């Protein structure tokens, strides 16, 4: 669902496999406060700030990305 959402909005993303990539797992833990479930989306804003979204939360994704509908 998350990949389809990004594709439908033409949003580029990088998929990181936290089960096999130690650096990706550390990044996720730093942003999430230790949460290790998937999907977990880290959005880096233009100012460098990072926001995390647990699961597929379309409303939160839309709000962070400044999208409607």
What radius of gyration results from the CA coordinates?
Answer: 12 Å
Q: Are there runs of 5+ residues with pLDDT below 50, and where?
A: none
CATH topology: Glutaredoxin
Q: Provide the CATH top-level class.
A: Alpha Beta
Shape: globular
- How many strands appear in the DSSP assignment? 2
Strand coverage percent: 5-15%
Largest sheet: 2 strands, antiparallel
What is the string of helix and strand elements?
HHEEH
- Average pLDDT figure: 91
| Number of distinct helices | 3
Please characterize this protein's 3D structure.
This is Glutaredoxin. It is built from 3 helices and 2 strands, in the order ααββα. It has a single domain (2-65), classed as Glutaredoxin. It has helices at 2-8, 22-32, 58-65, and strands at residues 40-44, 50-54. With 69 residues, it is α+β, with helices and mostly antiparallel strands. Helices cover 38% and strands 14% of the residues. The longest helix is centred in the middle third of the chain and has 11 residues, at 22-32. The protein is globular, with a radius of gyration of 12 Å. The mean pLDDT is 91. A two-stranded antiparallel sheet has the order 1-2.
């Amino acid at each position: 669902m998350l990949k389809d959402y990004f594709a439908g909005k033409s949003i580029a993303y990088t998929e990181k496999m936290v089960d096999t990539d130690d650096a990706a797992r550390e990044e996720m833990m730093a942003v999430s406060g230790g949460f290790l479930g998937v999907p977990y989306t880290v959005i880096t804003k233009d100012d460098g700030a990072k926001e995390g979204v647990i699961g597929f939360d379309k409303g939160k994704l839309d709000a962070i990305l400044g999208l409607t509908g």
